[in-house]
């Protein structure tokens, strides 16, 4: 586990942790232990995965968090794309990448990651560069400490630890183009956690509305699709363009797939395969879609997060131009908006 430590700022002494905080930290330490055991393939890994899933579920966006507004109608919400566009998206993406469409059908996950691309992108170096740049522009507080857990091919996740000093982030080590997307997404979660009221117990922090959690993460995720930002992190311009292109295609695909899932969640189960074939042909495996329909609440949260992030980025671009992310006042505005959400939530609970 590698610590990205903030600059030294003089002596500091934490207050003695409460019994609740000690229990919180024990839970996080257990999660990190499980991540390591699963990655190493130790005995009882399947049971460890199930236990780990329960610990990580709130950060991943499911089950549905308290305070969520009900989703109105699949395909009608801002932030999504037309599910009927999926075959065309994959065809265009394949053509841009120089691989046949069959590459998607043969191994969807490898295709989405960008395994077929003729370059590698180191997630370790990317994290360091992105953290340094986010601190520089005032987005990520200097005093907030991040610990990294490298997990092979396990999904990325963010875990709040001791409030407000430390967040643990689990990231896959595979050096693929898509790591730009999930590295920035998880750093968005870190930022949002760092911005939360410092007096909240850990359990309360994990009860944040998912649309707020994903909103901030997706604003930061947007940076992975910005060639100029990726160049500012140290990539050559052409490599930044290639990474940005891959992440833009993946974003378009995910928005259309989310709309597909939410549409099919409203479909009679015995009609699902027929509906899927009418919309996407043979592109999407019915078994995969059924799995995702069972996670429809997660995809609702994704849709809401995208809609809010899109509106935020549009507003910041209108106020500060294409390089809004260079301006500390952009991040101050986003932080103020997020803080207002917490204040309104606390007022409503009184």
Plain-language structure description:
β3 and β4 (166-171) form a beta hairpin. The chain has helices at 19-40, 45-60, 86-97, 102-106, 108-113, 123-136, 179-195, 202-205, 210-222, 227-232, 237-265, 272-280, 286-293, 296-320, 328-349; strands at 2-4, 145-150, 157-160, 166-171. The chain is globular and about 50 Å long. The protein is mostly helical. The longest helix has 29 residues, at 237-265. The protein has 15 helices and 4 strands. Strands 1-2-4-3 form a 4-stranded mixed sheet, sandwiched between helices.
Task: Name the average pLDDT.
Answer: 82
Q: Strands of the largest sheet, in order across it?
A: 1-2-4-3
Helix content: 55-70%
Q: Which stretches of 5+ consecutive residues score pLDDT under 50?
A: 1-14, 39-43, 57-76
Determine the strand fraction and express it as a percent band.
5-15%
Shape annotation: globular
Query: What Rg, in angstroms, do the CA atoms define?
Result: 20 Å
Task: Specify the number of helices.
Answer: 15
The strand count comes to 4
N to C succession of SSEs? EHHHHHHEEEHHHHHHHHH
**Major beta sheet, specifics?**
4 strands, mixed
Terminal CA distance = 40 Å
- Coarse structural class: mainly alpha
